[in-house]
Amino acid sequence: MEINNRIEIIEVGPRDGFQSIKEFISTEEKKKIIEGIIESGVKKIQLTSFVSPKHIPQMQDAEEIAKYFLNKYPELEFSALVPNYRGVKRAYEMGLRNIAYVISVSEGHNKANVNRSVDESFVELEKILADFPDINITLDAATTFGCPFDGEVSYDKVDSYVKRAYDLGIRTINLCDTIGISNPKQIDELLTILLEKYKDIEFQVHIHDTRNMGMLNSYIAIKKGIKHVQASLGGMGGCPFAPGASGNLSTEDFVYMLDKINIETGINFKKLVNIAKECRDNINGVYSGHQINISDKISCNS
Ligand code: COA
Ligand code: ZN
Questions:
Q1: How far is Cα 180 from Cα 234, in angstroms, rounded to an integer?
Q2: Torsion angle, alpha carbons of 157, 158, 160, 161, to 10
Q3: Rounded mean pLDDT of 44-63?
Q4: Rounded CA separation 37/35 (Å)
Q5: What is the pLDDT of residue 238?
Q6: Is 239 a catalytic residue?
């Protein structure tokens, strides 16, 4: 399989990165970082999550963030993560039509994350699909590659999960390595199975960088034909309900790599690095991205 000559990056820092930061980041600061991400050319951004503010107080300004960016940039593709029906309703009322609904593949993490069994989450998804026929749902398959509570997740288990979603009409699935424990062999083998079997599902990957393998694993995924990769500014990230979760694949590092192998992203690396620096200087988060002070002598295509 040839690597696609264009990869779509979905920036998830404002959601996956900010959610694990305890100290409240002002809404103005969040807007500034997201504006910078947009300025660098990113067209698909997960802005926030419509979750219980009791569970994740950082996301209490979801309405304001969503409203602001949807009004200002109607041409861009914004999404938000939701854990339940209530979250979909809130996001919908703000005008969002791209929703990432999360169900873990493993029971242990689904319970810890959204306080439901996997079955209960799927039943809720059915109701969402029936009541909101005009939304595009991306199913976030958390713990696809392993669970901090239940351990290994077999390919068969992932396959049954995907089949169940497929039968409900889901055609976009984001395979999440929630705690960053996947490896190139596993990515290769699982994608071989899924891409062969579900030709009309668009699979995305979302890989945390716990063992410094986020880049390699994402590279293997694009070599298998994946076109949509999630990444996070500065490598910010971590699920508050998954012990051991660390930062994500860093967007700027990934853009740099893609630039160097002539894969187009439409993102300006230097602008992105500058906003990653701004983020690191002002927001006290977990960053797995690497060197930020690059020499002007190092050039990039974009
Ligand atoms: N938005 C805002 N408030 C919500 C909500 C939502 N989507 N869903 C539930 N709530 C409120 C309820 O109204 C209730 O408030 P009250 O105590 O004032 O009545 C409270 O939250 C608890 O509701 P309940 O339905 O009992 O939820 P729960 O305690 O079983 O928790 C979730 C379930 C899904 C709401 C919660 O686990 C959650 O928000 N998880 C987020 C997980 C996450 O973001 N993980 C990281 C990304 S993968
Ligand atoms: Zn994540």
A1: 16
A2: 120
A3: 97
A4: 5
A5: 82
A6: yes
Mean pLDDT of the chain: 95
Helix (H) or strand (E) holding 206: strand 202-207
* 206 pLDDT higher than 90: yes
In the structure encoding, which two tokens stand for residue 169, read together? 């009409």
114 alpha carbon to ligand 1 midpoint, in Å?
7
Taking the CB of residue 15, how many other CB atoms lie within 10 A of it? 26
From the list 131, 130, 14, 2, the residue with the least C-alpha distance to 80 is: 14
Q: Is 93 in the pocket of ligand 1 (CB under 6 A)?
A: no
Name the residue type at position 246.
S
**Residue 286 binned pLDDT confidence (cut-offs 50, 70, 90):** confident
- Indicate whether residue 232 lines ligand 1 (CB < 6 A): no
* One-letter amino acid of 257: M
Q: How far apart are the first and last CA of the chain?
A: 25
Q: How far apart are CA 159 and CA 193, in angstroms?
A: 8
Read off the pLDDT of residues 146-172 as tens digits, 9 standing for 90 and up. Answer: 999 999 999 999 999 999 999 999 999
Among 15, 21, 51, 110, which residue has the most ligand 1 atoms within 8 Å of its CB, making it the best to mutate?
51
Count, residues in the chain: 302
Burial 85-112 (b: 16+ CB within 10 A, else e): eebbebbbebebebbbbbbbbbbebbbb
* Residue-wise pLDDT tens digits, 66-104: 999 999 999 999 999 999 999 999 999 999 999 999 999
Q: Which two tokens stand for residue 137?
A: 């749902």
Q: What single-letter amino acid sits at 70?
A: L
Q: Which two tokens stand for residue 135?
A: 């939304």
